[in-house]
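This section describes the prediction task in plain terms. A model, or a person checking by hand, is given the sequence of a single protein chain and must write out its three-dimensional structure as a string of tokens. No templates, partner chains or ligands are provided. The sample shown here is typical of the held-out split.
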Amino acid sequence: MADPRPANPARLLMFQLLPILAFLLVDALVEDPAWAIGAALLLVGAQAALDIRRTRRLDPLVLVDVLLIGGLAAGSLLTDDERFFKLKPAILEGLMVPYLAFLALAPARIIEGYFRRALGGLEFPAAALPLLRRLLLWMAALVLVHAGLVVVAALHASRAAWGWISGPGFYALLLPLVVWVLIQRRRLRRAARPTRLRAGSPPPARP
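The expected answer:
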């Protein structure tokens, strides 16, 4: 039996945008925030069901996401305080920071095995390991900064401001990192091109 693919924190961070959008959309249509919180909770449940159907198992991080939003949504509805629900992205991202930092600082055999399983058994290029470590550390730092911004927005900002910071704001924060990754990838390809040309060049002709 093949080992299941490891939990994917990046995919979970991307998926958390959808419940936030559902909350904002329903909140714009009805006055009672309970409907908006309920819509977000239903969407998270649907995401978990699709994940189980696709992978035949429930990703542990998706399970944490479902439990978090369920507990915090219940807290918001029982106390009539939507700040419980608004803090959910920050709590989830706070859990992601040590996870990303561990992957960045783990021994090579652990990080290579993790990404080999994540890539479906494909070999992980050892030359990419230093770049990947830096990428994971930058990701951990940016996720931590974003979690702090979400807490401030949840406690002091409007719903619209919180929604922008919690959702699109996360991608805006990651944009410089994406540009850096693309630049580094292009440099690695340029550095590897002469090696491939030398390896594929024909031997010199004899006189």
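For orientation: The chain has a mean pLDDT of 76.
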